[in-house]
Amino acid sequence: MAGRERKLQAVSADTPERADATAEELLALVARGDDKAFARLYDVVAGRVFSLVRRVVRDHAQSEEVTQEVLVEVWRTAARFDPGRGSALAWVMTMAHRRAVDRVRSAQSATRREDLAARLDVETPFDAVSEQVAARIERRQVRRCLSTLTDLQRESILLSYFRGYTYPETASVLGIPLGTVKTRMRDGLIRLRDCLGVTR
Amino acid sequence: MTDDTARIEAHTLIGAYVLDALSDAERRLFEEHLAGCSGCAQETADLLEATALLAGESSVEPPAHLRDQVLAAVAHARQLPPRTDDRTDQPSQVVALHSGGSTGRSRWLRRTATLAAAAGIAVAVTLGIQAVDTNNRLERDLRALEQVNTRNSEVAELLAAPDAKLVRGDVAGGGTGTVVASSARGQVVFLAHGLAPLPEDRTYQLWLIGADGPRPAGLLTSSDGPSDPLLASGFTGREAVGLTVEPQGGSPQPTTPTVVVLPLV
Predict the structure, then answer these.
(1) N or C: which terminus of chain A carries fewer CB neighbours within 10 A?
(2) Cβ contact (<8 Å) for B54 and A168?
(3) What angle do the packed helices A35-57 and A88-108 form, to 10 degrees?
């Protein structure tokens, strides 16, 4: 998948017509105002963005709104993407996750604690949630790597990432101290990074 | 505790940061930490790459009409220029102000001055929030907040409030003041470091300064070293936080100019 090419590609103006242009190459063209390149970039990333946003936000109409915001933001800020700092896909997905989480939190801010308590009451038992989420992660490698984490590492990461929980909320759901959840998140992500071979 | 230890503690937030599991205030604190930590940027980037893979492939197709909407929307959206000044690319800019840049800053100064004037108190000092050596102070703040987090659930909840704002400023006579405020929770927490020691019969007093004047918000327990965090309620989102030096036991109204004002509007 072109979008996952992590190596810094030589970006030049004569690449746009190639069908296999990477997300980085497309983004460089988008930065110059190329709307055709943007349409192609949309086709590469929109599905992933929408899928992630749906998981976090849940509501279909709101997920569409957030997805649109994210993609318009990609267009607006394309010139600020720095390929030296990471892949185009990570840049887009980071933006998508941040926006999705912001949407969930602003919706909750008024009645946050009550809401959280209510959700916890009717919540599927945690293991089942964790299983479901893991099952929906198609990539075998990611699934395999997730399975190398300890239960707490995996649960901490999946709860916060796919539910938009803050780490204190995650700690409360898992019944573990704040300090523990922070280190599990960090150590779990490091293990995931090493397992996925993300190094530069 | 050494600075190295503090750095390591600040650094443990990296996982929660990458997962967007921090409150806004903590996110800003961590971004400040990032700005002054060589090597952190690389580590953060790598963890973000891994996290992006976690999101996986697309499992739900976006509706077809969304594509048309987005393409129509970008036809009218102006693109931002690339960043050419390295400093504007530092995440610490996020910390400094809600609006950022010098315009934001002057607007912010004006607002504060207006607020203080409305409250009838003199603003003695500079509101120098974004200092050059933010990093060391950040480490201290973060350490203090972390410690508080574990022993005071009320403060911990405030820090985690989704609308929590963080503002820091230099105090006249030395030291810094940091406030985290949430109008949703109606509370502020104030932390001070390195304040000038006061005579026996004097104390630092905190004020919530609204349009109808300053309201006492508590006394700081100690003036040297990090003070215990001071939690005050009654914050509506329309006040600034100020600090004055008062006679021991505090005053009903400020009797001296503020040594720092932290605008939260």
Answers:
(1) N
(2) no
(3) 40
Answer whether A58 touches B (CB < 8 Å).
no
Q: In whole angstroms, what is the distance from residue A96 CA to residue A100 CA?
A: 6
CB spacing of A86 vs B49 below 8 angstroms:
yes
Instruction: Give the ipTM.
Output: 0.80
Q: Whole-angstrom Cα distance, residue B54 to residue B46?
A: 13
What gap in Å lies between CA A81 and CA A73, rounded to an integer? 11
Side-chain-side CA neighbours of B94 within 13 Å: the count stands at 15
Query: Quick check: B143 and B167 in contact, CB under 8 A?
Result: no
Higher pLDDT, B154 or A105: A105
Per CB-CB distance under 8 Å, the chain A contacts of B23 are: 166
Q: Are A97 and A57 in contact (CB under 8 A)?
A: no
Partner-chain contact B19 A109, CB within 8 Å: no
Tokens representing B200 are 């026996």
Q: Is B64 on the interface with A (CB under 8 A)?
A: no
pLDDT of A82 higher than 70: yes
Whole-model pTM: value is: 0.60
Say if B54 is an interface residue toward chain A (CB within 8 Å): yes
The minimal CB distance from B21 to the residues A33, A72, A165 is found for A165
pLDDT, tens digit, 9 for 90 and up, residues B40-62: 888 899 999 999 988 876 678 89
Which residue's entry shows tokens 């610490």?
B92
pLDDT reading at B117 higher than 60: no
Specify the amino acid at residue B27: R
From chain A residues 122-181, the ones with a CB under 8 A of any chain B CB are: 136-139, 142, 146, 157, 160-161, 164-170, 177-179, 181
